[in-house]
Amino acid sequence: MNIITALSNTELHEELKKVNEFNILSKDIQYQEGVIETLKEIHKVDILIMSETIPGELNIYEFINKIKKENKNLKIIIFLKEKKEELEIFLYSKGIHDIYYDNKININEFIKNIKEKNKINKIENKIQKINDNKLFQIIRIIKKLKNKNKKNKIISIIGTHGSGKSVFSINLVKSIKNKKVLLIDFDIINNSIHTLLGVKKYPVNINKEKIEIDDLIIKINNNINLICGLDLIYKKNQKIKEEEIKNIFTKLNNIYDYIIVDTSSECFFDYTKFIIRNSDISLFLVESNLIEIEKSKKLLDMYIKNWNIKKEKIKIIMNKQNKNSIYKKILKNIFTDFNIIGEIKYSDNYNTLINKNFNYYMNNKIKREFLNVIKIIQ
Predict the structure, then answer these.
(1) Cα(296)–Cα(165) distance, rounded to whole angstroms?
(2) Which CATH class is domain 2-125?
(3) ∠ CA(260), CA(265), CA(270), 5° rounding?
(4) How many angstroms separate the CA atoms of 26 and 107, rounded?
(5) Residues 273, 302 contacting (CB under 8 angstroms)
(6) Which end of the chain, C or N, has fewer beta carbons within 10 A?
(7) Residues forming a β-bridge with 317
């Protein structure tokens, strides 16, 4: 990781030099023009760590624009003297999410954050591929069926690891009234919905020698069914006939008003791409803190540019909102290209719901938030 600094903070600069993972390319730069000159001379700079107060002729807005013009892919970490909402909105609009304050700096914590983000970047850059024709066939059939009957909807729940997809999926399904709903746990490797609901992963009398998807259906109540044992099919049956898949999903399409698909956090699998492409709506959950927003923006960028997902299909929901979350005005500016359709506030009631396997009724606040989401996606 190639780094230059413009901090006027000798202690922080020296501490950064001690970290093996960081390659500090120069002495701490003391003026604006020095930063621009360095970027012109050294093209392989990954990160600029800078202070808002670096001396120069330009104001901070002009200086950031000039830096971005010189190197649009440069990651900028900035220290501000104090909290300034207008400046923060501008920084977020330029893709600058790592904002610290001089009076709150803890050098060890700062270095720990940078190292952690470096690890996340390395993981996210390792795109994993699964050559799984069975899943491709399933999604093609889903697409045909949904085009045949637009009243029925396929809704995928997507987002980064830890954004709360499984809990959100269950609450969404439980909030849909007077409709027949199928919840599919498509996290084949790390599925957990059956645990959250307190049911067995596989139907009791299942014949594990020969399995079809409808054999995996578990009844939760009169209007909700669950499929969570997909690992039985995708580990053993390497060749599934297209006609068999077509018959299965024709049956499912005739039975269910909504199919809610909880996806894997390992979102670089091809089957996640197929699910998103062929869903009517994809609800993208974002937890509004700096690290999660940065991860979410990278993931959304991959969906749009690499997977060719239409922006209009993705609806953003701010999940686990609390009094310390980033301001709504800033969030709208960050996700200006997407439609934020609602927010779900964090509540201690979720622990009760999980511990009671979601048999305990949601409080009215949570219920209203999910009902608002349902109104929009209907």
Answers:
(1) 13
(2) alpha beta
(3) 80
(4) 19
(5) no
(6) C
(7) 285, 342
Enumerate long-range contacts of 58-64, CB under 8 Å, 24 or more apart.
58/32, 60/87, 61/87, 61/90, 63/32, 64/90, 64/91, 64/94, 64/96
The percentage of the chain sitting over the pLDDT mark of 70, rounded to a whole number, equals 83
d(C-alpha 226, C-alpha 238), whole Å: 23
Give me the half-sphere count of Cα atoms (radius 13 Å) on the Cβ side of residue 354. 13
Give all strands of the β-sheet with 281-287 in edge-to-edge order. 218-219, 224-227, 181-185, 258-262, 153-159, 281-287, 314-321, 339-345
Chain position carrying tokens 């107060």: 53
Phi/psi at 81 (nearest 5 deg)? -70, -40
Amino acid letter for position 167: V
DSSP β-ladder status, 218-219 and 224-227? antiparallel
Question: What does the pLDDT look like over 109-141, one tens digit per residue?
Answer: 788 877 776 665 555 444 344 445 555 666 666
The two structure tokens encoding residue 167 = 């809990």
Mean predicted confidence (pLDDT) in 78-100: 86
Distance CA 200, CA 252 (A): 21
Break the chain into its structural domains and give their ranges.
Answer: 2-125, 133-377
Q: Give, in order, the Cα–Cα distances in Å from 332 to each of 117, 165, 288, 289, 336.
A: 24, 21, 11, 14, 6
Domains 2-125 and 133-377 share a fold: yes
Place of tokens 């970047």: 121
Tally Cβ neighbours within 10 Å of residue 82: 10
- CATH class of domain segment(s) 133-377: alpha beta
Q: Identity (one letter) of the amino acid at 330?
A: I
Neighbours of 18 (CB within 10 A): 9
Identity (one letter) of the amino acid at 245? I
Structure tokens at 10: 């000798």
Q: How far apart are the first and last CA of the chain?
A: 46
For residue 58, what is the DSSP state?
A: S
Q: Tell which residue, 29, 36, 38, has the closest CA to residue 9.
A: 29
